């Protein structure tokens, strides 16, 4: 068969996987073979490549695809791949496997096979989202929000919050349909899209939000119980009116803790009971909503009778009196009512009463005038006020009293908190959360990529309609003073939304009670599993313990932590105080869902192929901006705290967390930002003010590929302090196939060196280091400074390779206009853990080559190792220089450079060349000449003989292969005899064997054995004559002067800086004549003799420090 696939892969890797294919159309050929398809379950990151789950024993023995048989273990056949895709079933997350484990306890140890997911859009997504979105705020606070904010501002609150969740649902649908979403739901989507740091931070915020949501639902449950069902069950009762709020909070704490304990036990015993009761709780929510709409319709033609008593324009608590009258006629006798007793000191008509009570009459109005009463006009705008402000009907006549000090003790309905618009936004927002319920059940769905977008968006649209219609209908049916009465005190303690419902307020009371119970149980069920998913990912080390649980996987430890955090919310005890807290955490989660979608869309990663097409990056950015705005609108204080918590978690994961590569969008963003920055850096060379040493550290490895001088990495770390570019390079002798860099990377980690590792495989070290100097870095991020160690054993080396490589490296850095730092005695340099005490860093400024000598001590002193060291600068003056003026000029120069350093000018007096210097130069040249003679007499001759022998072997081999009889060589002889008697001179061009049919232009010249011995003896005699001439040599005058400088300068430096922690010295350049390279090494050795830590510095030919700002 032949089929064309328009996608590179049917199975999508995790969202945001950064893989850029070069081919889009894939031609697949299916051929019949004897390989049985594998049945391994797909893994998260690489489901089929390198999959080791299939049977290793069944070897491929077919004929059609034998060319690929050696790769079958790592790259499966397409037929096997498609078979795995067809049989793929994602394990259902949530409670199904835990239920099966519970059912199997005590009987068989084998688990039942997991059934294929079969939930559709309605049951699997729409109804769970509906149940999670509609909840406690709708029943307990929406009427109060409408009365306090007014219809217009309440609609604005609903519109903002529902727009936020709708935009988030669009972004979530795009992410959820871009591949399979396993267990973890929203946490999985965010972490795989934004990386482990953001994923862990937002995942824990989402966990905290879900946990505090459990607190809010439990507080709602207790509020319904103690306020509307059994008020007499209160343990703490207030003797005075001003003590009532505190008593209510204490009751909430006691009953809330008991309820939390009971719910935690239910979840611990078995979550299957919670799952079975979910349908009951959903039915309660739906019935309550229907009862509200039925009551609204009924109020249009038959409003319910719930009178409200007003004293003047003030609303009275209708608890302790039956009649809204001051006095009444009983058997033709005027008697006072219970209301009179509340405002007067005695029940008699001549009693002393409250002044406001005396000046105003009581009136009775209907709490629910009905849909057609026109009360909507009075409820259009808000009525905010401080804590303790009385609830008043504005258009009612009233005579104000001068003394209002006793109002707080009177039975008036008053605000229990200070109200303002932003507070209401924070309290209301939890009523629109719960949109993740569908994505959290993705494993239970028949077609998750179709059901999640449709079900979630339809649920949000439905609830948005319910909320908008409820705001309008509540404002059109209920009196304003009743709407602003949070606990229904004016209507005999009934639930305000309940008095509107039909057929009875108890429908709403009982329905909202069970709805809050169910929502609390589901929060206590979902939050521990979310924490368990985060813990099992291993990105937050201190959460590892919460990944464990009971034998069936039940997250016991996570449940205990969840209950503990939930108790914190219950101790707060106020629904209005807990709601803004969980709003922050949910908004943080939604913010990053939008950000993830926008990031993936803008980066255009090849794996970003969502099946849900109705998304756009602008919508995601709008959703993210709206989430951020709502956070600060609700509570800027809580918003900052939530961001601080998320930031701390982010930095902790970055510092201590496990390394995870999930193909996240943040990595893609980093790649794009790096590309953009590199292109910008390429446009112009860096200014002197921006110059900093970008280091290429050249490391030498021993025979076991272990770093010889790890202190070089420590010094690099101290010099860079984590800033700028660091490339750690090394050369491995061999081919590219043997290249490895693990030891270097581990050394970098040990020495805390932040940078890049670049290992080059080369046939010799010389070419390898040359390649590194030329090619390391990319674009504008190339090194400008080379750091290497001094070859300390160059004198003891049997060959000259080490110091020749060193000198050639010096020449190449100079030719490349790069600075060079050479550390002598680098193994004695301090480690990163050491702290040098009081001491100095001495700079010997001999020649000016860009100011790098001045900059390096300043950079070193930024690190804690060198922080206590002082900087001293020495410069050398000749006899004809004005040393006093030089010191003043140097001090002024350092002042303009903003460098703190002591300045000293050392006068170098002219003196005759000492006999010691003359003798040292002579010994140096004699040693050099002797090495040349020995090398010529031994090494070069051996190499020449070897090349002659190799040529002779190849000549004989070619002669034997042709089968021709050659006149010069006669019959075949042993190879040893051939090597002794016939030696063919080395020639760059190959010669054919001397055969009978060879023409005159192809004559093969040979040496006889006698001729070769004569020539060898003559060369030996010449070498012996050269050795005798060594003792008659006179030193070169140029070398004598250089040696004199090295000796004199060394004396001065040792005298002044022998006790310094570090000495920085100008490095003289190598000679232009390569014949004096070994003398150059001697000069440097003499210059540095007697000094412990030395850093030779050679500038790159440009200014690196400036006096200008």
Automatic annotation (TrEMBL):
Region spans: Disordered: 933-1003
Compartments where located: Cell membrane
GO-annotated cellular components: plasma membrane; synapse
Topology of the protein relative to the lipid bilayer: Multi-pass membrane protein
All copies of domain Amino acid permease/ SLC12A, residue ranges: 125-297, 415-696
Polar residues bias spans: 961-970
Record-level Gene Ontology MF annotations: potassium:chloride symporter activity
Catalysed reaction, written as an equation: K(+)(in) + chloride(in) = K(+)(out) + chloride(out)
Bilayer-crossing regions: 119-142, 154-177, 198-219, 252-271, 278-297, 417-437, 457-483, 495-521, 557-575, 581-602, 614-631
Keywords, comma-separated and alphabetical: Cell membrane, Chloride, Glycoprotein, Ion transport, Membrane, Phosphoprotein, Potassium, Potassium transport, Symport, Transmembrane, Transmembrane helix, Transport
Pfam families attached to this UniProt entry: AA_permease, SLC12
Domain SLC12A transporter C-terminal positions: 710-822, 833-961, 1037-1109
Domain of life, source organism: Eukaryota
UniProt name for this protein: Solute carrier family 12 member 7b
Native species: Esox lucius (Northern pike)
